[in-house]
Amino acid sequence: MSTDVEEKTAPALSTTDDVKVDNELGLATTNNDGEIQTIHHRIDKAVERSYLRKLDFYLLPFLSLMYLFNSVDRSNLSNAKTDGFDTDMHFQGNEYSLLLLLFYVPNGLADKEFDLKECRSTSESAHKAVLRENHTSLADAGLGLLIDDPNRVHELWRNARHPFAYRVRNQLRSCCQKNLLSIWILSAYRFFEAGFYAGTIFHLTLFYKRNELGFRIALIFGSAELAAAFSGILAYGVFQIKNTALKGWQYLFIIEGGITVLLSLFGYYWLPASPQEARWLTSAEKDVARVRSLQDGSKDVGEDFNLKLAFRQWKDPKMIIWAVIALTYPVPFTTASNFLPQIVQRLGYDVVKTNLMTVPPNLAGFCVLLVVTKSSDYFRERTFHICFALTLSLVSLIILATTDVETNKGVAFFAMFLLASGAYIPSCLYHSWHNNNNISENSRAVTTGILVGLANLGGILGSATFRVEYAPNYIPTLAATAACAATSIMLVLGLGLWMKHDNRRRDREQGVRIRPQDVDTSLLKDHENDVNWRWFS
């Protein structure tokens, strides 16, 4: 072991079970009159600070930049719609809502499939997911050129002779005749975007301790808010291009998709699959990374795929609650990300100003996101912070549903700030929360993929309820979104209070107060069922 690590002897939590010696890490246990003594290496704080600085400098900014353009690719339809995308595509009735709906279905289902495949090598899961998603954005770069004229697709297949190509050609012609070609194309290629966010979250759990996770996820996920602001600014400029062969929304797709492709090419070189493979870490820092993960994050590091362990947590009835929360908390986020420009448009602004007016709420929301997640990590508390964020969204939705925005523009714009401030926080803290209470890398890889997939499916409601007949006030949409926010608040509060109660019960039984950070996760033989476990609530 490195000389940067010193030995320290400290009493472990009382137990009668033998604990396996880990000579590689330097952990050992001795049985002394029925009490287990733990001898382990103390982490050198200077090396740990250096390790965290490198992660925050080399890893986080690039992942944030990739997710920014991932989010731009996913949400640019709302900006395009303000420039007449739906009119140019001859959408009728609720076909625009159908377009958004069909994005969430394949994306949510594929999230589960891709993460199941990737967890076979847990240390490489996020690396593959991140890079795969960004290559699919090549479609965005060409999408603006393609979908303005469905006959161009016919031209691509006109001379095809292969039987498969012939069948595809006929299928495309059928789609064109039904005026749904754009829906078919967008849904197909965005299927392959699945797994990016889930893979990124799991990737971060391999590098950071549990109380460092929420803020780091927020830095990455917060780029979604910056993406909305960036897309609004870019749309403001692009939509002023007139009298050209292409329309403004086509230029928007080409520019945003092209940047994402360039980022993905560099990502192959830059992103490490795990701390042990990071070329910019020293051997001492890699040792510290392993010790940190075992002390406050995982029972084992670098696990091989094990199907039984992967689905172990899904035998717990609490997973039903986790799943329902995953289906309900994203609905306010979907409303904010996909339809904020349409809500702002109700204030009576023109196309250009509508896109520009979406920038301030998203920038304010990004600042609130960082403050709340930093507080959550600092106090090691998730329940009340998530409920606070959902309450902000709930209040904003009630204001929008009960206020005449045309005569009360100031109140309506204030509600926009509340919606943007509260809608993004749960995605960061919720996925930190369930990962904080799961110390198996196998289980984290699968559970994160499934719950992120369910969250994507939860976006269906937000998309499906924004129907043409509800315009311009969208009262049923806002009511349904508010109901989902209220449901999520009740479930989060109930689960969190149960965890806090169970921690107190365990303290009484053992006769000592133990905090979650006092528990060495590498010594928990029975994972979260171990007597010494404490919930991160």
From TrEMBL:
GO terms for molecular function: transmembrane transporter activity. Keywords: Membrane, Transmembrane, Transmembrane helix, Transport. PANTHER family: MAJOR FACILITATOR-TYPE TRANSPORTER HXNP, PERMEASE-RELATED. The keyword Transmembrane helix applies. It is a multi-pass membrane protein. The chain crosses the membrane at residues 181-205, 217-239, 251-271, 319-340, 384-401, 413-433, 445-466, 478-498. GO terms for cellular component: membrane. Gene3D superfamilies: MFS general substrate transporter like domains. This is MFS transporter. It is found in: Membrane.
